[in-house]
Structure prediction request, 234 residues.
Amino acid sequence: MTDPKDFTVGVDSDARKAPKRVVFVTRRTSAQVKSVDEEQVQTYPEALFRAALAVELLVIALVLMSLFFNAPLKSIANPTVTPNPAKAPWYFLGLQETLHYFPPVVAGVLIPAVLVIALVVIPYFNINIRGNGLFLKNRRRNLTISTIVAAGLSIFLWFFAMYDALAPTLIIAALMLLAAFSSLQSPHPFRRYLAARPASWWIMTWFIFVLIVLTAVGTLFRGPGWSWVWPWRS
Prediction:
C-alpha cells in the first residue's frame, strides 16, 4: 500500500520540504517554485586534498633540509655559564624582541592577553563572509578609520623607539593607501589584488609581517646584551 502521507494536500512552495505536492494553477498564479540556492564550499575532497598535499610537501622539504644541512646546535650546555645573549627558541624571539622595548608586564602579559582576547572576540563581530574589498564600499569612512588606526599605532611604536615594528607598519599603511585609490577595474593586476583584499586580510598580513621582522631581528641582529650586531660580524 502507498503511504497516505504522500498525498497530503497543503499550501507550500518549498520544493525541498515538500518534494511531492499537488499544484493548483489558476489565472492569477504561476507554477514556478521560487527558491534560492545558497553558496556552498566543498571541504572534501578539495580542501582536505590541498591540506594533505601541503603537509606532504612540507615533510619532504624538511627531510631534504635535514639530509643536506646540519642543525645549528651549539656546545653542550654548561649550568655554570650563562650565554650572552640568552635567546629563546626562534618561535619566541619575536616576543623576546618586544621585551627589549616594553616593560615585562606589557610585553609578557598585556600584549599576549590582548591577542588572545582578540581571537575570542573577533568572531562575534559582523564578519565579511563574502570577502569584499575593504575600500570597495564606504571608501571615505574606511580610509579615515584606517588612517587613524595606522597613525596612532605608528606614533605608539615611534614613542617606544620600536623601529623594527614601525617599518612593516608603515609599509602596510602605504599598501592600504594604494588599495584605497584602486579598484577592481585597475589596469595593474597588483592594484586589483589589493583592492579586493578584505579587512581581515590586512590585519593578518600586518600581524604576520611584524612577527617575521621581529623574529628575524631577534635571530640575526641581536648580540651580547641584546645590542644591535650585524650578522656578518662575530
About this structure: Helices lie at 43-68, 93-99, 104-121, 139-159, 163-180, 189-195, 199-220. The mean pLDDT is 83. The chain has seven helices and no strands.
